[in-house]
Sequence to fold (492 residues):
Amino acid sequence: MNILISIIGHWPWISENSWGWRPAQTLLTTYWFKLEGISLFSYQTPLFGPPWQVPFEFPLYQAVSTIMANLSSINIQTASHITSLVIFYTSAIFLFLICNEYFPDIFIACAIFAVYIWFPFTFFYSNEILIDFMALTFALGFIYLAIKWFKKPTNISLGILAILFVSLGSLVKITTTPIIVIPFLLVFIRSLKDQGFTYKESLSFVNTHKTFLTFVILMAIIPLSLTFLWTNHADSIKLSNPFTVFLTSINLKDWNYGTISQKLNLKYWWVFILNIKKYFFVGDSIFLVLISLGLTIKASNKVREIIISSLFGSMLTIFIFFNLYNQIQYYIAISAFMSILIGYGLSWIIKIIRRQNRVWLTLLFIIIFGSTVIYPCVEEFKEYRNIINSYNVYFESGYTAIAQKARKNTPIDGYIISIQDTWIPIIALLSERKVFILHPDNRELFTCDIINGINYRTVVGSPDSSDSKKVLSCFNHYKQLDSGIFSVNQSP
Fold:
C-alpha cells in the first residue's frame, strides 16, 4: 500500500524534463543508445568531438531505460523516470529485507521502509534520471544476499549471486560501494564465531572452510578487479581525445577523493554534517536518531550491528569519496542508512503509544509529529520542487529555442559546435545531435586542425565572443541564422 500511494505521489512528474547536469548527461547516453543501439563498452556521450565518448560509469541504467522505452513505446524521458522508480522501490524492498534480518519486530522494518520512501530527499531523487539508486540497490541487495549466504555458506548459487550484485554495483557507481564495507565485515565476523573460529585453531579453520573463505575473498577481489579494468578502459578512451584527458581518473583524483588535509579538517566535516541534517534529519527528526542511538545500549548485538553499520558506514563512505559530498546527489548513497537511524527511533515511539492505547496520547503524537516532522518535510520537498522548477524554466527559456534552430540547421549526420561557460550537455540533449563543447577549461587546446574534415554544420555561441570568432574563422563559409547561431561549411 505504501508503494502504491507513493507511485500516485510521483505520477505528476513521471514525464518531467530533467535538465540538471547529471540527469541530462545520463539521458543523453540513453538517447544515443536508442538511436544507434546499446553498446555497453563503447557508448556515446557526444560532447567533445570524435570518438564522441566520455565514459564514466558502466551504462547499465541507460541500457535498462532504453530497453524500457523500446518495449513500451514511450519516450526515453518517461521510460527513464519509470526505470528510476522501479529501481528505487527495489532498493526499498531490499532495505526492508535487511532490517527484517536485524530487528526482532517486523514493525520496525516497516517503519524504516516508510521513512525511506517518504522522506523528501529520497522521494524527490527517486524519480530523477540518475544512476545512484541503481548502485544503491545493488549494494543493499548484496548486503541482504551476503547475510543469507553467511547463514548457509554451502549455498554456492547464493554466493555467486552476491558476487554478481556487488560487482554490478561497483561498475555502475563505485562511489556508492563503500556503504557495504562495515556491514559486510560485521556479518563476516559474526559468521566466523558461529562456525567456531578461534585464533588458536585458525590454520585448522582455513583448511576445513576453504570454499567459505574463497567466496569471501572473491566478494572483495572480483568487484575491485572489474572496477579497475573498467576504469582503465574508460581512461584509454578519454586519453584518445585531448579534450577528455582532463576527465581521466588520475586528473579527477582530488575531485573524487579530496585531499588528506581536507579529510582531517573538522570544518569540512561540519559542512557535511549540516548537509545530512538538512537532507535527512528534517525538522526535529534528529531526536528520532538520538533515540535510535540510545536504544542500542540495551539492544541485542544484531541491532547494535545494523545501527553501527548505518552510522559508521555512512561516515566511511563520505571519508573515502570526500570531495564528492559537496554535491547533493552523492548523499543518495547513505540514504538507506539514514532511514534506519530515523525509522528505528520512530517505531519505538509508535509502539509505546500503541501499548498505552489512549486516544488523547495518539492525537497528541499526531499533532507533535505532524508539526515538527511531517510539515517540515512537506516544506523541504516544496523547496526541492521550486529549485528544479526554476532550473527547468531557466534552461527551457534559454536553451530550447537555440537547440531547436541548431537541430533544424544540422542534418542527422552533421555536428554542432557549442561555445559555453561550462560543459553542461543541454544543447546536445535538446538538439538531438552530436556536439563539440568548447568551454573555458579546454579552449586553449582548440585549433582549426581539431575540426578539419569533420562534418560540423552549426556553431552556437555569442557573435561577440572571442571563442566564437576563433571557431568561425576555421570555416570557409558561415552565415548567421539568428542571434548566437551560425550555419557553417568547410567546403571551398
Summary: Strands lie at 415-419, 434-438, 456-460, 477-482, 485-489.
